[in-house]
Design goal:
heterodimer; A: about 70 residues; mainly alpha; B: alpha/beta; globular
Chain lengths: ~70, ~210
């Protein structure tokens, strides 16, 4: 096999994966909740990073004005 | 007899089943799910048939397979024994791929560069993907091996890997086992990773 393969197959959906593995609906819901928690966490981190960047820029501007 | 259908998104994972491999195990799952694949391991098929038959059936059904030969050392004393399972399954795969070109392709992963030339010199000419024994190495090598234009970055996949590691206890508890490779645990990890990837792609607008 070449060391790199160009992948063009469609992304499998979580429903397809659950179907292949026969994961019960109730467990799927629990896993969905965990995934949502992760995405929320990431979005909060990104927001915090954005706020920090703005704060840093403000501080830089203030010290340049001094 | 018509040939068996191939799962184009299926990747058979030939890895050591031990606790010390935990971080790399979750890295393979996250990496493959984040790159649009569905990983498979021998443990996911219910018993009844001979283990080797189950493995061969999985290899035949998947478009790709990954063979991690990084744990070729002897097992823990007092019964120190070399681990032959991974090379054995790689041998079966090589034969299958050779007899069925275009149906199956395999990748060999190792932690140390050039060690494969010593441990399995017949594989000379096969470029191994070297992960240096780290989750980041696994993700980076997977991303290079399976190239897609809209692939997530390695730091994005590392974030998912950390989350999976943190969630492992509750997943093990929910499945009533301490075995990372138990069918339910493996399937939960795959389903969770695929859903995380799906939500992130949706949030990014593609």
């Amino acid at each position: 096999m070449p060391k790199s393969v160009h992948i063009t197959t469609p992304w499998p959906t979580s429903e397809e994966v659950a179907k292949r593995f026969r994961i019960p609906k109730r467990r799927q819901k629990e896993l969905d909740a965990m995934a949502r928690e992760y995405v929320k966490q990431l979005q909060a981190e990104e927001k915090a990073r954005g706020t920090n960047l703005k704060e840093n820029e403000k501080q830089k501007d203030a010290s340049a004005a001094d | 007899m018509p040939p068996l259908p191939i799962d184009l998104q299926g990747v058979f994972l030939n890895i050591p089943y031990d606790e010390e491999f935990r971080s790399l195990y979750t890295a393979y799952i996250v990496g493959l799910c984040y790159l649009g694949f569905v990983p498979h391991i021998a443990a996911e098929i219910p018993g009844g048939t001979r283990r080797l038959d189950r493995i061969l059936k999985l290899i035949k059904s998947c478009r790709f397979s990954i063979h991690d030969l990084s744990r070729v050392e002897l097992s823990v004393p007092p019964h120190s024994t070399p681990r032959f399972n991974m090379p054995l399954e790689l041998g079966m795969t090589i034969t299958w791929a050779d007899l069925n070109p275009g149906r199956h392709a395999f990748l060999v992963f190792e932690s140390e560069p050039y060690r494969i030339q010593r441990s399995a010199s017949d594989l000379n000419g096969t470029d191994a993907c070297i992960h240096h024994g780290t989750a980041e190495g696994v993700l980076s090598e997977l991303r290079s091996a399976f190239w897609r234009a809209d692939a997530p970055t390695v730091p994005q996949m590392m974030g998912a890997h950390r989350f999976l590691e943190k969630s492992m206890e509750s997943i093990l508890e929910r499945n009533g086992t301490r075995n990372l490779f138990a069918q339910g645990v493996f399937q939960d990890l795959c389903r969770l990773s695929t859903r995380m990837s799906e939500l992130l792609r949706r949030a990014a607008g593609y």
